[in-house]
Every structure is written in C-alpha cells, then in structure tokens.
Design a protein that fits this description.
Elements lengths: L1 E5 L1 H9 L3 H10 L3 E5 L1 H12 L7 H14 L1 E2 L15 H10 L4 E3 L3 H6 L1 E2 L2 E4 L1 H10 L5
Parallel strand pairs: 1-2, 1-4, 2-3, 4-6
Antiparallel strand pairs: 5-6
Helix pairs in contact: 1-2, 1-3, 3-4
C-alpha cells in the first residue's frame, strides 16, 4: 500500500473543493493509501480553516480534524530539519513525510516541489500523484 503525506494546502483544498486533492483524501478514507499526518500539519489545517476566507466554525473544524485523524496515521517527527529556507514551515511537512515512512509527499507548494525528493520521499503535485496511483492500480 502506498504511504503518502499531503501538505496542508492539499488537505485544505480537499476539504473545501472537489478535484484531485479531494480524491486523494477519499483514497485515504477508503483505505486505498496510507496517509501520514503530524501535529504540525493538523495545527496548521486548523489555523487556516479559521481564516475569514474559509469561515469555518470551530465545531466544523473539530469535526473535520476528528474525521481526518480517524483514517490517517499519526507521525511524530523526532528530527528537525532546515532544508526549505524560503518557507521554514514547509520543513515540518518534510519531517512528517520522513517520520511517516511516506513514499510520496503530495504538494502544490513551489518550495517543496523544488526540493523534488527528501530521504527517498518523492515530492509530487496532486495531478502527478493521481497519475502514479492510476498506473499502480490504486487511483479512482
């Protein structure tokens, strides 16, 4: 089974819109892939959903986080890294992917995509991931 980490923006997109990010979260919920998340990722998802742009109530945020944690694997990164200088919060995403044993980090973030690969974790866009999953017979 594919082991995956999604960055915060992919999770936010999945929760608010249809498209590949939503399909990836559905794949995790259906057990087609294993999705690793960390406290850093969950905390950032909560922070972003609180913004007026999305206008989520605390109750809706709590329900979404509860659902996500029910079908994801919690990664607890022990090693801090400093690879992405332009946006240091992106380092937490890489830490989660490495600690979670992920094969893929799904991101639309230009800083992460520029890294390309970290400790064997391939960094790909949601579209690229869906193509990879389809080739492996795990896509929708």
């Amino acid at each position: 089974m594919l082991r995956v980490t999604c960055d915060t923006n992919v999770i936010i997109s999945a929760l608010n819109f249809s498209g590949n990010p939503s399909r990836i979260l559905d794949m995790a919920a259906d057990g087609a892939i294993r999705l690793a998340v960390s406290n850093d990722i969950l905390n950032e998802v909560e922070r972003v959903l609180r913004r007026p742009k999305f206008g989520w109530s605390q109750e809706r945020i709590d329900n979404a986080l509860r659902e996500i944690t029910a079908f994801t694997e919690h990664a607890d990164p022990k090693q801090r890294i400093d690879i992405v200088k332009e946006d240091p919060t992106d380092n937490g995403i890489l830490e989660c992917a490495a600690a979670g044993g992920s094969e893929y980090l799904v991101s639309g973030d230009k800083h992460l995509l520029k890294v390309g690969q970290y400790q064997g974790v391939k960094i790909v866009t949601p579209t690229d991931f869906m193509e990879i999953a389809a080739k492996l017979g795990r896509g929708r």
